[in-house]
Amino acid sequence: MNHSEEADNPVPKSASNLVVHVVDTHVDHLQDVVTKLEIELDAVEVELDRGGFVLKKQMLDDRRFPKMHLDLQRLLQVIAHGEQVFPRVKERCASKHWFANEDIISLEELIGRLRRLKENVGFIANRITAVQAGLDSWQAEQINKKLYYLSFLSIIFLPLSVITGVFGMNVGGVPWTGQRDPKIKDGFRNVILLCVVMLFFLLLCFIVPAVYARIVAWRRKRALKRSWSLNRKNNIHTLSFDQFDSRYTFFWDSNHRFCLILPLKWESIWITCSHGEKMKFV
């Protein structure tokens, strides 16, 4: 559908009608492009819902959605430029006496259409981004599946390759293989033992630092917990003595065998505890 052929003012009769006709034709052309892209995106989404592996792979290979997103960005740039220019055109035309009021209202409506068109283009761009993200996740899933199958095959054939490599290697020229000393007969066994020792040494080089770091971290954590517990006990002990010293009164007998602890508000009451005398708690 071509909106320019069905414009409100197909044949302008004045200069103001001509300006409105040009702006209206421009906005209608942009509307046609956006509508075409939206219809194409709807068709592609339906195909993706019904399609399978071949269709998704073809869309990824053709880079269809990145191209659509690039076209939308160019279209958005044109719309943003028109959104900046057309209000200035309206302001300048409104100051002219020969520009009709109806045409000013028509320009305002066209500017509103252009803004709504910009919002629609942003919504379409978000849809394209979402569909592309779905295809990227599907591609990543397919790659993970292939890597899983490849690792499974490597697990099957790795022992075979190790066995064929060990029993098919040439030990000539290696020390302790009997090439120079005819008394040594077990050259292959010596090479295998040497390989085992080297492997054990490499494993030791990787494991010992990790174990040492674990032990050091455990000792630091234990020392930190011990210091926390000691500080907590000291704080509790000090607070309890301070509270007792400030809230209670202590009475001892003459032989310091019995003690009576009473609140400070009872200090004026006569306490009988043998021959009691008051002693400050230290």
Rounded average pLDDT: 72
Helices and strands, in N-to-C order?
HHHHHEEE
Helix and strand composition category: mainly alpha
The portion of residues forming beta strands comes to under 5%
Can you say what the CATH homologous superfamily of the largest domain is? Magnesium transport protein CorA, transmembrane region
CATH architecture call of the largest domain: Up-down Bundle
As for the number of domains, it is 2
CATH fold descriptor of the largest domain: Methane Monooxygenase Hydroxylase, Chain G, domain 1
**Looking across the biggest beta sheet, what order are the strands in?**
2-1-3
CATH C-level label of the largest domain: Mainly Alpha
Low-confidence stretches: 1-9, 236-245, 266-282
What is the rounded Rg? Answer: 45 Å
Number of strands: 3
- The separation of the N and C termini measures 100 Å
Can you tell me the overall shape?
Answer: elongated
GO cellular component, one term: membrane
Subcellular location: Membrane
Family: Belongs to the CorA metal ion transporter (MIT) (TC 1.A.35) family.
InterPro entries: CorA_cytoplasmic_dom (IPR045861), CorA_TM1_TM2 (IPR045863), MgTranspt_CorA/ZnTranspt_ZntB (IPR002523)
